What does this fold into?
Amino acid sequence: APGDRLIVNGYLGDHEIAILAAREGLNFEEPVVSDVAALNQMVHAVLDAGAGVHFMRDITRGGLATILAELAASGGAGLEAEERDIPVRQTVNGICEIFGFDPLYLANEGKLLMVVAESSVSTVLSTMRGFATGKDAAVIGQVTSDHRGMAWLHSVAGGRRILQRLAGEQLPRIC
It folds into this structure.
């Protein structure tokens, strides 16, 4: 519903960049570690807290951008995400710049997207942040009644772009 908030449970892209580094024998000053993690305890805690969770999905192949595009298309609502609020480590961003990847399309194995009622945001964030798998949880955007069926990203540079499903693969299948 318009006004619902988009929440992720932490930094995105770590898994795919960790796999790339392992495959290519790359060493970074600050190592990138896969985000593989079981999320069931955190998810149960959020649901047990009575939060108004309207949608939930793991952020795996295709990354956040693909999930937002699919959700907007299937749900018939508009989605708006704020690039500055999406947690991506500087190391992951740097590697993406070198290899020409978009971190919003990177695979994750311990991340999820929740769409929650605006009134439940503080409950969801405080509950998630009580777990190692959610300590870096962040609100990254919202559902809107504008541009139904489309997901938009407001960039840090002040522009905006449409988020679409990943066409092809940035890297060969990693798992």
